[in-house]
């Protein structure tokens, strides 16, 4: 449980730095159900790990867009692109990302 908090704190600090200390940019790592203030599931934590995984494989945030509104919409509608991933990314990694980035069941 403590390790989970440390990892989320590190991600939070990375994104706060990336957004020039604007604390509203935490939505870069949250799941759609959190943006919509709905019930969260175990998959919500997996989503955050998926964001980290995608960043490690591509060097960019999976849902980042030109402005915050579009980025929020990308998260809410689960819109991301595989073209940002490094060319030598395995099929297994691509499948894992597909399985992680799904809206939690209603």
Compact description:
The protein is mostly helical and about 110 residues long.
- Helix/strand structural class: mainly alpha
* Largest sheet properties: none
Shape: globular
Our count of helices gives 5
Mean pLDDT over all positions: 76
The CATH H-level homologous superfamily: Transferase(Phosphotransferase) domain 1
CATH topology: Transferase(Phosphotransferase), domain 1
Number of discrete domains: 1
Radius of gyration: 13 Å
Structure description:
By secondary structure, the protein is mainly alpha-helical. It has one domain: Transferase(Phosphotransferase), domain 1 (Orthogonal Bundle). Helices cover 54% and strands 0% of the residues. The chain is built from five helices and no strands. It starts with a helix and ends in a 6-residue tail after the last helix.
List the helices and strands and how they pair.
Elements (H helix, E strand, L loop, with lengths): L1 H17 L13 H4 L6 H17 L9 H9 L14 H10 L6
Quickly list its features.
106 residues; mainly alpha; Transferase(Phosphotransferase), domain 1; 0% strand; globular
